[in-house]
Amino acid sequence: MKNYTFIFLLTFSLYSSQIQRFTYEYNFITDSTNRAGIKKEIMLLDIKSSGSNYYSYDVFVTDSIISAELEKQGDSETPWGAIKPNSNFKGSIRSKVSKEYPDYKTYLHTSLSSDFYKIEETDKPVWKIHSEKMKIGSYSSQKATTKYLGRQWTAWFCTDLPFQDGPYKFYGLPGLIVKLEDKAQTHVMTLVGNKTVKEAVIQKKNENHAFGPQNEIAVNNQQFIKLWQEHVRDPNKITRQKMLALGNDAQGNSNFSFMDATGKKLDPNEAMRNNEKQFRENLKKSNNRLDLDLYRY
User: pTM of whole model > 0.70?
Assistant: First the structure.
């Protein structure tokens, strides 16, 4: 039985402007005890004059399908179970990174339970540039290394692509990062294409979920680490807070309800027990997050 807590959809505004779009293939291992469990996701880095956005193409396509279905039904709060999954539903990376030029203010946009956060990155990568050069695909590139996000990284940058940017939170080299990998090679991002586009699907609006539209909560790294550690200790804390905030109806029943994939209501205590059990199981299998510093516990 799949618990229904909320629907986290990324919806985007379309703007007509000149965008340089770089496509990365991201190969990663989330469970360090299972080296054979390699996952792959296509990521996009959209660069324009005011900044950049890095997000999952696969998740964007999936959310576009779901948003279209919700619009067709005329109900933005339709339970997930009413939207039938299909082979076009792909992607697992729901977080996104935005950078603001010219000072490269960097933000991670992500969620905990039903709360959405805009996390300001307070650290930055400090690079050591090496003389070693290599061809990455069709790109002539040079090596650089850094210790960042709790890992040792090797980057290959291309000065023929005059952007001091790169995938995820990485930037600051004299050319676009065309390949990035950690020392253990469990997180590898490789540039596989680029093109100029007129419409940038990059600006996130309010997400649709069980509690209605909600703005992001602005925090810094240290504040989010504390929130994450609290969430690990008690995965249902935010849910209980929402239940209290919503209160009861005239008959004394909670205005907050849990549903399974079919839309059937569940006993709240049972649903929260199942939610915590599933969270603990997933936590064991996601011990190798890209950002080790942010998700330590």
Answer: yes
